[in-house]
Amino acid sequence: MHTQNISRKSSFWSNFFKAPTESDELESVLKSMPPFKDLSKKYMRLLMEMMHNRLYAENEYIFYEGDPGIGLYIIRSGEVKITHSDKDGNTKELARLHKGDFFGELAMLDNEIRSASAIAVTETTVTVIFKPDLQEFVEKYPSKGIHILTGLAEIIAVRLRELNKEYSNLLSECSQYLEETENED
């Protein structure tokens, strides 16, 4: 007689104190971002209900440079590279982003086209809040919406300050290089 091994889980051994859910993880990532850090559970839940999850395959474009800017992307898993092409078609990698990083925040504040492309380096899951959804949230909850928009402006200000420092350093290096080459002649 053949007996079949049946594996049953005893409820005694079940983990009733499960690891954080995906929504807990997303909330934690959002809380680490200036636009969302001070939102109460209620408003965080309402905002998260407006968000969308997307899965991108390795080397798939999330958006192209020149596309309309329509949303803010938060990386849940995987890796994304941000690239920019010059007028001659030369492409330069500007950044590599990982789990917990975000991009596309300019799209939430203006109606301009994308200034760079975003490409999934590996299979990547992102959560997106689209501009019309954020606008709806702002209309329904103005004080919370202003808080989010102010937080987005803070992020952009920090990034602009860093860019200014990098630009200034680059100008100094170029000036120093030019002086050195003039002295060699």
Task: Provide structural commentary.
- This protein is of the alpha+beta class and 185 residues long.
- The chain has a single domain, classed as Jelly Rolls (Sandwich).
- 39% of the residues lie in helices and 23% in strands.
- It is built from four helices and eight strands, in the order ααββββββββαα.
- The chain has helices spanning 22-31, 41-49, 131-140, 142-184; strands at 52-56, 61-63, 71-77, 79-85, 91-98, 102-103, 117-120, 124-130.
- The strands form two sheets. A four-stranded antiparallel sheet has the order 1-8-3-6. A four-stranded antiparallel sheet has the order 2-7-4-5, with no helix packed on it.
- α3 crosses α4.
- The chain starts with 21 loop residues before the first helix and ends with a helix.
CATH architecture: Sandwich
- Measured by DSSP, the beta-strand proportion falls in 15-25%
Portion in helices: 25-40%
CATH class: Mainly Beta
Structural domain count: 1
User: How many E strands?
Assistant: 8
Gyration radius over CA: 23 Å
Q: Any idea of the CATH topology?
A: Jelly Rolls
Number of distinct helices:
4
Mean pLDDT, to the nearest integer, reads 86
* Sequence stretches where pLDDT stays below 50 over 5 or more residues: 1-20
Arrangement of strands in the largest sheet: 1-8-3-6
Q: Based on CA inertia axes, which overall geometry fits? A: globular
Biggest sheet descriptor = 4 strands, antiparallel
Query: What structural class do you assign from the helix and strand content?
Result: alpha+beta
N-to-C order of helices and strands: HHEEEEEEEEHH
**How would you name the oligomeric state of the polypeptide chains in this document?**
single chain
CATH superfamily: Jelly Rolls
Intertermini distance:
97 Å
